[in-house]
Design a protein that fits this description.
- The protein is mainly alpha-helical.
- It contains 4 helices and 2 strands.
- A two-stranded antiparallel ribbon has the order 1-2.
- Helix 1 packs across helix 2 and helix 3 packs antiparallel against helix 4.
- The N and C termini lie far apart (about 35 Å).
Length: about 120
């Protein structure tokens, strides 16, 4: 299984109710996350050196992006007479996913700070 397929497979696990029509977008986001993470790796480190963390982090980044895209597509407010429904943004969940991905990859990234050991 190639790297992108591993990332997509893990992202599918993270998104419980993925609809078939959303799969092409998820694949694009996974490829984008893979490319972005590869570009940020420290010199001398490749994705295969940290494969488990790399795949997990790329999947988390892709799911965070998918979450934000889903939020953009959702209506913010619906009013019908005296009744108003407002959907609260889940931007916090996307930020949390990104933070977890950054933590996973921090030991392997250029210009990243991480406690490695004492």
């Amino acid at each position: 299984m190639i790297l992108t397929e591993q990332i997509v497979a893990q992202a599918k696990i993270l998104i419980r109710d993925l609809e078939e029509r959303d799969l092409p977008m998820l694949e694009i986001l996974c490829r984008s996350a893979e490319t972005t993470l590869k570009a940020k790796l420290r010199e001398g480190i490749c994705a295969e050196d940290c494969i488990a963390d790399f795949v997990a982090a790329a999947a988390l980044f892709a799911v965070a992006a998918m979450t934000e895209l889903d939020e953009i597509a959702q209506m913010e407010m619906v009013t019908a007479g005296d009744l108003t429904l407002r959907r609260k943004s889940s931007d916090a969940s996307a930020c949390c996913l990104r933070y977890q991905a950054e933590l996973l990859m921090s030991p392997y990234m250029a210009d990243a700070f991480a406690f490695v050991g004492v």
